[in-house]
Amino acid sequence: MTELSETARRLLDGSNFAVIATLMPDGAPQTSAVWVSRQGQNVVFATTQTLKLANIRRDPRVSITVSDRDDPYLELNLRGTVTSVDEAGGSQLIDELSALYYGTTPYPYHKPDMKWFAVHVQVERWRTNRD
To answer: What CATH architecture is 6-128?
Structure first.
């Protein structure tokens, strides 16, 4: 894996929306909008107990597209493998992402019975359409 470019890091560090593609049991793609962040060269996002999480647990390969909020024609495309799903850090991560995307923390839509998971993706390939 090569190091992420300045443009790629900026897109991951900002409040830019992402779409993650996971694989259904029959191989069909399933997509979901997510908030993302970066930890070093890896991507992290938060999720609850969803179809996306079930797909990841069965097949950890993912694709993520991040679009610049102010210039939607600037995009970052990543492919990688989920290396961990961490329940212990999930609530903290959704609060951090809420601060980044909403400007408020804690995440305003917490529900008492909702479990959050921090999902870590090791980036294997990436490109922006401007690098």
So the answer is: Roll (2.30)
